[in-house]
Each structure stands twice: as C-alpha cells, then as structure tokens.
Amino acid sequence: MSNRKATAVSCANIALIKYWGNRDERLRLPANASLSMNLAGLETRTTVAFDEGLAEDEVKIGGEAQTDRAKERVMTHLGHIRARARITWKARVDSRNNFPAGAGIASSASAFAALTLAGAKAAGLSLSEQELSALARLGSGSAARSIPAGFVEWQTGETHAESFAFSVAPPDHWALVDVVAVVSKAHKAVGSTGGHAIAGTSPLQAARVASAPERLRRCREAVLSRNFYELAEVVEADSNIMHAVMMTSTPPLYYWEPLTLVVMKFVREWRAEGLRVCFTIDAGPNVHCLCPVETAPEVERRLRDLGVMETLTATPGGAARVMEE
Ligand code: DP6
Fold first, then answer.
1. pLDDT digits 0-9 by tens, 155-176
2. 174-314: CATH homologous superfamily?
3. Does any ligand 1 atom lie closer than 6 A to the CB of residue 138?
C-alpha cells in the first residue's frame, strides 16, 4: 500500500432544508432530500494513519483518546473504508475542530466528511466526489453534504450508491452568511441519531416528508436566483415543521431554550422592518441567522442586545479537501 497516512479538512454545514428521519436506518437513506450551505472556517481536520503493527484502532478527538461511543462510531466508519479498500490494518485517527468545543455547532458533518476523505486517501482508494459523499453518509447523514462545495443538495436515492450530495452553486455564488447565535453550550440530551430513529412516531412526519420536495424546489430556486425574501420564508417554514415533528414524537424532543424563541421572534420582526435576516435551527438551541454579508454586523449587534453572549459568523465554504503532508 503506497499511501498509508493522509490528512483532510472539511467544513460544517447548515441545512436550509432539513434531513430528519431515515427510510433505512442502517444505510442512512434519508426520508427526504435536503439542501445546505457549507460553513467556511468552521472546520474539522482529521489525520488517518493505517499501521500494520497496530492491534486496534486508536481514536483521538481534540487531543483526547476516546474509549466509548465516539470511538465505536469512528471504528464502524473505518470498517466501511477498510471493506472498500480490502485491507485489515488498524488505524490511528486524530481529529480536531477549529471551532470552540461544545459551542453547540454540529460537528458530526465536518467530522465524518474529513474522516471519510482522509481515510479513503490513506487506504489508497481513489473515489469520485459522489462515492465519497455516499461513503461519508454512512457515518453521519449530514456529512454527505460537507463533501461538495458551497450550496449542496443531498438526494434521497433508492440505494447506497444513489444517495449522495452534489453542489448546486459554488461558494462565491451568493455572499450569504450564517451568524450563529450561541444560546447554550450544554450537550444535548438526545442527539440527531436518536431523533431520526423516532421521527416516524410523530403523526406530522408524514406531512413533513410529503411537503418537503416542494420546499426543496422553492429553496433551490431562491438560492439560484439569490432571492433573499423567498429563501427566508421557505427556510423558516422548513425549520418550524421539523421542530413540530420533534416536539410531537414519542418521546417528544424540545431542543429550544427560552432565548431561542426570543431570537426567532425578533428575527421575524427585524425582517418585517426591512432588515434582511432569517432563522433556522438544528437539533439544539442555537439559532442560525442567515443574512447577506453586509447585514451581518447589524445582526450580531442586535443579537448581543437580546442577551446572546456569543456569535460565530461563517460565509459559504468550499469542498472537503486533502492536505498535502
Ligand atoms: C437537524 O446528520 O447529525 O441537523 O446521520 O445520525 O449523524 P446522523 O444525523 P445528523 O442529522 C442532522 C439533523 C439536522 C438537520 C440537517 O442537518 O439536515
């Protein structure tokens, strides 16, 4: 094997149209297609080194050796890569996020995209972007969307190979930014994987899934034509219907904190007054405020006035990339 060690960097992404619930849990074939924007500068850097002499996989995240669930999830993913490459060697994995630990920014997307790219390269595989995206999906669904650049759509697909993400517009297509209002840094009680598994217990999930293709079409159109007000309406509607599913599943999942709702309410008021900003919320309390780049300083200032202690700002990000050693 020629290339035993490789490093890759990948950014997080924010879903404009959400993925919630799987048609196939094991393969992570999603209930509906989704659309996201990569977040430049909010990155995971991962090194994978396959070593013939290693008895078992070693996994470090943020400099700390992992022993529990996080390690198992990485080992399972390495297993997919080993199976593809027909190798048995164990690996050392060293993964770091450059965004503050526990800031409540979803890291599974950037983490599994970087692990997939570094792992595939280190294992000597040469895969297309579509194959890398599908492979990343097995580790974390949203990671499929952190492989291609810019504004990205993940199609549902009927099979493993068909369920991949692709770029619909490059990062420089639209100077949109995500101002993340960090409302709480507490670790969430029920993670996305657990949430996907119970999405179908909500009577609203069928309605959400049935209406998702139309929202996706409107959102894709709004992105392609850079129509902010149309984007705002469809992005907020999609976030709201996902949270309605979460709150009505068994057990119910409430991800919001009081300040989450305060920010949602004010964002809508500010927009009604003419400030171009809208919100979307993932499986946590932080509010992602999307706005054109020139509006970001004003949005940051107003969020602080509402009592938001910390914000993170990201422009559209590029594709996952291999770093030269
Ligand atoms: C609410 O991709 O984190 O952020 O596949 O189990 O790792 P797993 O779930 P994950 O789910 C993301 C859910 C979401 C919406 C989205 O990003 O589309």
1. 999 999 999 999 999 999 999 9
2. GHMP kinase, C-terminal domain (3.30.70.890)
3. no
